[in-house]
Design brief:
Among the domains are: 158 residues, 3-Layer(aba) Sandwich (Rossmann fold); 137 residues, Topoisomerase I, domain 3 (Distorted Sandwich), CATH 2.70.20; 123 residues, Topoisomerase I, domain 4; 91 residues, no CATH class. The two termini are 32 Å apart. It is an alpha+beta fold and 745 residues long. Helices cover 33% and strands 21% of the residues. It is globular, with a radius of gyration of 31 Å. The protein contains 20 helices and 26 strands. A 7-stranded mixed β-sheet has the order 2-3-4-1-7-8-9, with helices on both faces.
């Protein structure tokens, strides 16, 4: 019997072929005895654009595309049409030939909605009647592959996953294509040439950044005051802080002292006074091992510690998974591990020690009998936490970025086999008589944590929660053992002044974490619960690409490691209805997809509700634009005689460099059709320093293999054609030309 395994990516196919043994490489597939192993290259089909559903008599642009017209909206496909991607037609043909040879097909796509849909679509395209099994693993090491091969399931069990993926794709198309066109056309009618792109998760993500930026801009810092005193006890000295009485009229909403006069008076009344110990408590406490790492956890740590972007982190973890086979499936939203996998611990730790000798001393001190809270079958989703695999490699073969991320993953796993971190939490309350006998006594509080067992913290692993906390120096002091009513003296008291601070701008790491924990930004208890149960908005696989797209469209700017909304981004959010920017409604959208995934919901009913929603938004587009007119252009037009672009003759605009905050550059006002840019030299564009050809020769139908953005055909100064990613500079992928098409090989 001939079995055909179809993986989602070439790297996964190779891992399966190696697991089957006796693999012989052929053109686009492997032969392993009677078994065949081939692969897709991501999606081999794409949804057709609106032009496919519009009448033939719609006027066309010079590029052959049908023009956008309000009278054609909403565009609602009766039968959804897909087309083969030109750049992967060859691989699809190979799969068709292999399917004809197969007696049984094994679906080996990634274990998520998109992975299910990618391979199912190929199988359905060729209308095969042979049985189809499902192969599912969370890592590509030899042991995991072997287990997966022994536990194949019926592919029909995953039908709901495929339906949810199709529902998501089609609903996104309906909203994106229709609402984007409706708002953009309405804006153009009012004289605004901005492209107002709408996305199901993209719009709430942008709204989150806009809201944070505006809170920061409106924030007015206020002074508040603290009083610290040095306390002398017969067994030693320590620091205590004055605790103001609750509900005092000199406290703000967060119980901070805002009256300097009151604080100064307390300093005078405390200095060189006697007091007594009102209470003393010493309570043993412990901190459990941190939970495992999801993709958003790693992204946050990598952003804070290494300054990596979300896209850089995703690509790095993906390389550790696919290329090096040193970590489990990377696009996971889970922090737990299945109980059965605990038996693999010794093998995984041995592989880690072999791969990463510098950490072997920590591996030797692990205790695999320790059962931390990470082992929980009830918390496992489609994937489990990201951990090292049983594959032995060589850490020196990794790039510096890969080493950094691998170290984070390894240390997180090691903490599970160390004891809890234990300490004594000590609190001393002290009463000091006030100068005014009619006033209440002043209360001082001293807190200190004394570590008794370092436990898992010797591994020096950082959890996402640790990265968001700030240290409290008061709690790091060693406190003496005292008794109630012991006499103490206040040696001196010091007034400290601080200012309230606004929340920080988002980084890519903190924004992704915010999307995962979006319930924290919602007040309604019912909605908060819903969002928390759905693990936020977006998925681990899409969040970084959403941020990349927002930056590419210039809705978001970056300054150092921080993300900030642009004027265009704010304009878009101000224009969109709340139903598009609300994370609550987006979560409800996801909950419906989850019902479809679990075969409890209907794709048709889901899409019918989306069609009704899109129809309403198209009808309301003009009024939304009228209520939110375009802001004045803030670009630098100080040079009234703006020079024309050498490529398209449109006016060039002098703009400030938003990344460095210093200097200027010149960009074509014909963007995005013309992407010419030039450095600034004494207030004028420096044409000599710019490449002679910047305008795209033609926009192609090809997609970048790294980020799936459109590729653009360009011509060098010597006349050589090449293809560059339209997401540049976020993605710098480029390809040579081969017979009029990009050479992906």
């Amino acid at each position: 019997m001939t079995r055909l395994f179809i993986a989602e990516k070439p790297s996964a196919a190779k891992a399966i072929a190696d697991g089957l043994g006796k693999a012989v490489r052929r053109d686009g597939y492997y032969e392993c005895g009677d078994d065949l192993v081939s692969y897709c290259i991501g999606h081999l089909f794409s949804q057709k654009e609106p032009d496919a559903y519009l009448p033939d008599d719609v006027p066309k642009t010079k590029k052959g595309k049908k023009i956008w017209r309000a009278c054609d909206l909403p565009i609602i496909p009766e039968i959804w049409q897909y087309e083969q991607k030109k750049e992967t037609k060859g691989q699809l043909k190979i799969l068709g030939t292999l399917i004809k040879r197969a007696d049984e097909i094994v679906h080996a796509g990634d274990v998520d909605r998109e992975g299910q849909a990618i391979v199912d679509q190929v199988i359905e395209h060729f209308k095969t009647k042979v049985p189809v099994k499902r192969f599912s693993v969370s890592a590509q090491d030899a042991v995991s592959i072997g287990r997966g091969l022994k536990s194949l399931k019926d592919n029909n069990e995953f039908r709901g996953w495929r339906n949810a993926a199709l529902g998501r794709q089609r609903a996104d198309w309906l909203v994106g294509m229709n609402v984007t066109r409706a708002l953009t056309l309405a804006a153009q009618a009012s004289g605004d040439k901005s492209l107002l792109v709408v996305g199901r998760v993209q719009s709430p993500t942008l709204a989150l950044v806009v809201s944070r930026d505006r809170v920061i801009e409106k924030f007015v810092p206020k002074d508040y005051f603290q009083v610290h005193a040095t306390i002398k006890h017969e067994k030693g000295e320590f620091i205590a802080r004055w605790v103001p009485p609750k509900d005092s009229d000199y406290l703000d909403d967060e119980n901070r002292v805002i009256s300097k006069t009151v604080a100064e008076k307390v300093v005078q009344e405390l200095s060189e006074k006697d007091g007594r110990v009102a209470s003393y408590s010493k309570e043993p406490k412990s901190t459990p091992q941190p939970l495992g790492l999801s993709l958003s956890d790693i992204t946050l740590i990598a952003s804070n510690r290494f300054g990596f972007s979300a896209d850089e982190t995703l690509k790095t973890v993906q390389a550790l998974y696919e290329t090096h086979k040193l970590c489990s499936y990377p696009r996971s939203d889970c922090k737990y591990l299945p109980e059965a996998q605990k038996s693999d611990a010794k093998t995984i730790l041995a592989a880690v020690s072999s791969t990463y000798p510098a950490i072997s001393n920590l591996v030797e001190k692990t205790d695999t009998s320790i059962h931390s809270r990470i082992w929980n079958d009830g918390k496992i989703t489609a994937h489990h936490a990201i951990i090292p695999t049983m594959h032995s490699g060589n850490v020196e073969a990794l790039t510096s970025r890969e080493k950094s991320i691998y170290d984070v993953i390894v240390r997180s796993y090691l903490t599970q086999f160390y004891p809890k971190h234990e300490y004594d939490a000590t609190i001393i309350l002290i009463d000091v008589d006030a100068q005014d006998s009619a006033a209440e006594k002043h209360t001082l509080k001293a807190a200190g944590n004394v570590v008794t067992i370092e436990g898992w913290k010797v591994v020096n692993a950082e959890s996402p929660e640790d990265s968001e906390k700030t240290a409290n120096d008061d709690e790091s002091q060693m406190l003496p053992t005292v008794k109630e009513s012991d006499h103490v003296g206040v040696l001196d008291a010091v007034l400290g002044s601080k200012k309230t601070t606004p929340p920080k701008h988002f980084t890519e790491g903190t924004l992704i974490k915010a999307l995962e924990n979006i319930h924290k930004y919602v007040d309604n208890p019912e909605y908060k619960k819903l969002l928390k149960s759905e693990d936020g908005i977006g998925t681990p696989a899409t969040r970084s690409s959403i941020i990349t797209e927002l930056k590419r469209r210039r809705y978001l700017d970056t300054k150092a490691k921080y993300l900030m909304s642009s004027s265009l981004g704010r304009r878009l959010i101000d224009t969109l209805p709340e139903s598009v920017t609300s994370p609550v409604l987006t979560a409800q959208y996801e909950s419906e997809l989850l019902l479809i995934q679990n075969r409890k919901g209907s794709v048709k009913e889901f899409l019918d509700s989306q069609i009704q929603y899109v129809t309403e938004q198209v009808a309301n587009a003009a009024s939304l634009i009228a209520d939110n007119p375009a802001p004045k252009d803030t670009s630098d037009h100080s040079n009234k005689d703006s020079p024309p672009c050498p490529e398209c003759n449109s006016a060039l605009i002098r703009r400030k460099d938003s990344r460095s905050g210093k200097g200027f550059w010149w960009g074509c006002s014909g963007y995005p059709e013309c992407r010419s840019t030039y450095p600034d030299k004494r207030g004028k564009p420096d044409f000599k320093s710019a490449p002679s050809v910047k305008k795209p020769q033609r926009t192609t139908d090809y997609k970048c293999h790294k980020c799936e953005s459109d590729l653009i055909a360009r011509k060098s100064e010597k006349g050589t054609v090449w293809y560059g990613c339209s997401a540049f500079p976020t993605c710098k992928e480029r390809y040579f030309d081969k017979d009029g098409a990009p050479n992906f090989g």
